[in-house]
Amino acid sequence: MQRSANMPRSILPLSICDLRLIKGDRALLGGVNLMIDHPGITVIMGPNGAGKSLLLRCLHGLIKPDFGRITLGHQSVADSSDQQAMVFQQPVLLRRTVLQNLAFAAPKTAKTDPQCLMRALESVNLADRAHQPARMLSGGEQQRLSLARALLSRPALLLLDEATASLDPASVLLIESLVKAQSAQGTKVILVSHDQGQARRMADEVVFISNGQVAEQSPAEQFFTAPQTPVAQAYLAGEISF
Questions:
Q1: pLDDT for 24-37, tens place per residue?
Q2: Helices 114-123 & 98-105, crossing angle to 10 degrees?
Q3: Residues contacting 235, CB < 8 A, separation 6+
Q4: Is residue 115 in some structural domain?
Q5: What are the contacts of 66-70 at 24+ separation with CB within 8 A?
């Protein structure tokens, strides 16, 4: 199939080799080795403190690891920064209107196209809030705005860190729908989630992290029906806190 000019470039394979992040005498990431070379949605799961969010921040270049290497489509993290977008658990918004928040982060072509910006707001059901202060939105609305802002750049890699935690069900379903649609257009999605229901709905692949290392990586159906490691089995049985 010929790739449309509007489809993002592939950022695969994504390779992480012996990634380590040390704080004091504690290894927060203790030698992460991971290869992701399939499109679709990869969900990262694991107990609290396993290193899921730290790994995502290393991928996005927000944290520099103490040791190890990350390559994305044979590029370094720094060289791939303009091909990435990230949505955090807590929305990061400017003291501006909804529309101005969107325009501030938009690529140049979108900045000069008001219709493009409004279509982005319509996609997250926020067109009627365009001229309201962004920080006056509800939590679910703020997160939908954050996602719309991330998607405007047509990223090759979309990272989501517990992006729907504590949101209302309508916002969760809308965000999941938009993320799935973006994945279908060629964006590689890596999603951190503790919500097993969401992971079952979203994941093509699951990476399970425990104690700062990858304990298991498998297709989603296999992971949820026949996890291979005792720690993943215990986690899915509710015997380990998430």
A1: 989 999 999 999 99
A2: 110
A3: 45, 46, 47, 208, 210, 242
A4: yes
A5: 66/20, 66/21, 66/22, 67/18, 67/19, 67/20, 68/16, 68/17, 68/18, 68/19, 68/20, 68/31, 68/32, 69/15, 69/16, 69/17, 69/18, 69/19, 70/14, 70/15, 70/16, 70/17, 70/19
Print the domain residue range for 139.
94-155
Rounded Cα gap, residues 71 and 194, in angstroms: 26
Q: pLDDT at position 7, please?
A: 61
Which amino acid type is present at position 219?
Answer: P
- Continuous segment of H or E residues that includes residue 103: helix 98-105
User: Would you say how long the chain is, in residues?
Assistant: 242
- How do residues 196-235 score in pLDDT, each as one tens digit? 999 999 999 999 999 999 999 999 999 999 999 999 999 9
Distance CA 123, CA 149 (A): 11
- Domain-embedded: residue 165: no
Structural domains counted in the chain: 1
CA-CA distance, 115 to 127, in Å (whole number)?
A: 11
Angle between helices 139-151 and 169-184 (to 10 degrees): 10
Q: How far is CA 15 from the centre of its chain?
A: 16
- 200 within domain boundaries: no
Whether 132 is in a domain gets the answer: yes
User: What is the reported pLDDT for 18?
Assistant: 97
